[in-house]
Amino acid sequence: MTDAAPLLDIREMSVNYGGIQALQAVNLQVFPGETVTLLGANGAGKTSTLRAISRLLTPRSGSIHYDGKDITRAKPDQAVRMGIAHSPEGRRMLSRLTVYDNLMLGAYTRSDRAAIRTDIDQQFATFPRLAERRKQFAGTLSGGEQQMLAIARALMSRPRLLLLDEPSLGLAPILVREIFNIIDKLHAAGVTILLVEQNARLALQHADRGYVLEAGSVTLTARAADLLDDDRVRAAYLG
Fold this sequence. Notes:
Elements: E1 8-17, E2 20-30, E3 35-39, H1 46-53, E4 61-66, E5 69-70, H2 76-82, E6 84-87, H3 99-106, H4 113-126, H5 128-132, H6 143-155, E7 161-165, H7 173-188, E8 192-196, H8 200-205, E9 209-214, E10 217-223, H9 224-229, H10 231-238
Parallel strand pairs: 3-8, 3-9, 6-7, 7-8
Antiparallel strand pairs: 1-2, 1-4, 4-5, 9-10
Helix pairs in contact: 3-6
């Protein structure tokens, strides 16, 4: 944590799915340049938190502040324009569009064509496999390649805050290492990251801080290194 103001500041946020309460009075902060991870069992509310931040869900109560502005009622495209990008669980590729076209869609809020071309070249440099497959339909890519495309597509909006939901899900160990090497490089480049990841140990090894969600509520928050040594976290999530 730094002395700077938080880039993301969630205050007493509650979210319902129909009659089911997914989140209850959640308080969470992410500071500029941090990687913060959300830990919790399936159904704890991790994905709901990310969806609320990217404005795909509207809180029942509480507020979401981003860069000092209240965005609780903002629309999803407004969140993207403000600098929030979401790489969702399941990748959500447009399978009948090419890799290149998926990347272009990631820049749909931008009009700086020359800079967009430069950023596509940058994504191809970061993800060489995507460069090799730029004309392929996204639906023909392997799971690891689709995950790379999901992250690259999110980066095309030039986000200040990157939301990553289960980036290693279903991937072979060698691809998981590759994805997390990329996450580390983004962190080193100053991108602020909020990470949901099934592999709690891996997430904490690559994060600065963490929050534990249980049944929609934050029950613990600490530095990632301290959570790795916490007996409660070790028993519940680290095996």
